[in-house]
Amino acid sequence: MNILNRVGKQGFLYVGRIFIFMGLFSFFSSPGFGKPFRLEKIPDQGKNFKCRTCHVSRFGGKEFNPFGNDYKRLGLQAGDNYTEELGALDSDGDGFSNKQEFDAKTNPGNPKSKPE
Fold first, then answer.
1. Angle (CA) 8 2 27, round 5°
2. Between the CA of residue 64 and those of 45, 60, 110, what are the distances in Å?
3. Residue 8, SS3?
4. Per-residue b/e over 45-84, b at no fewer than 16 CB within 10 Å?
5. Which of 32, 38, 94, 103 is the most exposed place for a label (fewest CB within 10 A)?
6. Beta carbons of 16 and 8 less than 8 angstroms apart
7. pLDDT per position as a tens digit, 27-70
């Protein structure tokens, strides 16, 4: 017995609509549907750590690391730009400014990643 005989045509269409809706919802709410244009705004343009420059997850998402929180607080208020004030901060508290970390190709949002 195939599925069409078990649920009927209307039931099949109903279930199909639910799957389409769920697929669209997951696509538009997925971390991959982020704001990659922001990577162009930071000094390394995201080349070294991609989404992890600002996020905890490598896929982006809603959880930000310390640099990401500072960027939200300062960068977004400055017209969505990296600023000298943001560069002067030590977002992750490892003893090096964000600018020093970008210059050394270390992650300013991860205290374990710091210049040698």
1. 75
2. 17, 8, 11
3. helix
4. ebebbbbbbbbbeeebeeebbbbbebbeebbeeeeeebee
5. 32
6. no
7. 554 444 457 788 899 999 999 999 999 999 988 889 999 999 99
6: tokens are: 């078990």
Handedness of CA 47, 49, 67, 71 (dihedral sign): positive
Which pair of structure tokens corresponds to residue 82?
């990296």
Phi, psi of 46 (to 5 degrees): 75, 10
Exposed / middle / buried, residue 12 (Cβ in 10 Å: 0-12, 13-18, 19+)? middle
d(CA 52, CA 4) in angstroms, rounded, equals: 46
- The two structure tokens encoding residue 4: 């069409």
Kind and range of the H or E element at 70? helix 66-70
- Confirm whether pTM is higher than 0.85: no
- Integer CA distances (angstroms), 96 to 23, 69, 101, in order: 43, 17, 6
How far is the C-alpha of 82 from the C-alpha of 60, rounded, in Å?
18
